[in-house]
Amino acid sequence: MSDTTPYVLVLYYSRSGATAEMARQMAAGIESISGIQARLRTVPPVSPTCEAVDPEIPDEGAVYVELDDLRNCSALALGSPTRFGNMAAPLKYFLDTTSSLWMNGALVDKPACAFTSTSSLHGGQESTLLTMLVPLLHHGMVYAGIPYSETALLSTQGGGTPYGASHLAGTRSDRSVDHQERELCVAQGKRIAKLALALNAMRQEAS
């Protein structure tokens, strides 16, 4: 695809690998839709030691996000493990640096979704997803969950919510993303891609 092809920014923070795997499944769903691509990006960890400096490029996985990745995207899929019912600090730290995009309305009317992973089944998946959408609403984005037409929502034995895809990692974070959790990640990726194309066309007509 060319540089002008619209893309969904799949932005995540992952500590044990589960959220990164969900991001890859989300990207697979996005790229199954013709005319749009996925751009995988992550954020660096936040260190309590002021002198700690990470390399500019991670040793493995997605590269670190830049504001232009967010500014120029057609949609956003935001992923984080749960930290006390909320998103992880590194992702929140990045979002706190996006005031310039908010002031310019760069994300207004672009679709967004969220996904998360927890170590316990009732460890705050829904509250994490709901609080993740708050800054997106302040940016004027259009939030999209997962509709119950996705039947895996009714049969999942692990993660999966109407607020967004989720995963049960287990107390040792060693439970793999199962079939139904993957199915819901892919479905959410497909939905956000279709919405991105539709809303992108509407914005172009209005301009």
TrEMBL record:
Any Pfam family: FMN_red
Protein name listed in UniProt: NAD(P)H:quinone oxidoreductase
Q: Check the record and name the InterPro entries matching this protein.
A: Flavodoxin/NO_synth, Flavoprotein-like_sf, Flavoprotein_WrbA-like, FMN_Rdtase-like_dom
Asked whether the UniProt record includes Flavoprotein among its keywords, one would answer yes
GO molecular-function term, one example from the UniProt record? NAD(P)H dehydrogenase (quinone) activity
Start and end of every Flavodoxin-like domain?
8-193
Key words of the record: Flavoprotein, FMN, Oxidoreductase
- Ranges that cross the membrane: none
Q: What class of enzyme is it?
A: oxidoreductase
What's the Enzyme Commission number for this chain?
1.6.5.2
UniProt family annotation: Belongs to the WrbA family.
Q: Please give the organism.
A: Halomonas colorata
